[in-house]
Amino acid sequence: MTTQNIESDRQDILLQALPNVPFDGWTRAVMTGAAKEAGITEARMRLAFPDGPMGLVTYFIAQGDEQMKTKLANDDIDTLKIREKITYAVRLWLELQEPNRDAVRRAITLLSLPLSAGAALRSLYGTVDAIWQAIGDTSTDYNFYTKRMILAGVFSSVLLQWLSDNSDDKEECWAFLDRRIANVMTFEKLKRRLPDVSGLATAPFRILGSLRYPGFKR
Fold first, then answer.
1. What residue numbers bound the domain in which 116 lies?
2. Domain total for the chain?
């Protein structure tokens, strides 16, 4: 099969799986049923997602990253300050996923499992990297990594707030996002204090863990 065919199978499986995920989770049964509904053989399904349900989950999140980047590319943000661009991009990612909020919740729950730590880190990195790329970041070396580490902590905490905010306008979530950005921006100031905020490197995992284990300390 060509790469294009594999990508098509991935999209079709995800499309068929999404309606069932809020009820049954990101399971192999859901993935297998989705492939069957899409007319995709089990062999093709395994080729599309060799990592099984975890591969489907990370693909779902990556698709959200791509949606955000595509939408942001068509928006005029050139006149915005860096902190405003970051705020806009994070909010945009979440707003685009509003129809799939329960699927996101299920995904984060799965990614919070100890055995999912590697996939969770890669997925979180993919999202924050997509955000920085989308707003035109051209940093390299030290700046490249510290920006993504800082944003990982912001995005993770805002994601939790978004999942718990059941209001239609999400005013509490957006206010929380503004506060989080204000607390860590400008990035230049925080980077100069990096030795004092090294806990940010593990903060995303503590946040993810709190979703799965209520007594987990952040």
1. 53-212
2. 2
CATH number of the domain bearing residue 151: 1.10.357
Does residue 19 belong to any structural domain of this protein? yes
Do residue 38 and residue 65 come from a single domain? no
* Residue 182 exposed, middle or buried by CB count within 10 Å (0-12, 13-18, 19+): exposed
167 Cβ contact partners less than 8 Å away, ≥ 6 residues apart = none
Token pair of 44 as six digits: 């093709």
Per-residue pLDDT of the chain (218 residues; tens, 9 = 90+): 788 899 999 999 999 999 999 999 999 999 999 999 999 999 999 999 999 999 999 999 999 999 999 999 999 999 999 889 999 999 999 999 999 999 999 999 999 999 999 999 999 999 999 999 999 988 877 788 888 888 999 999 999 999 999 888 999 999 999 999 988 765 556 555 555 444 444 444 444 444 443 443 44
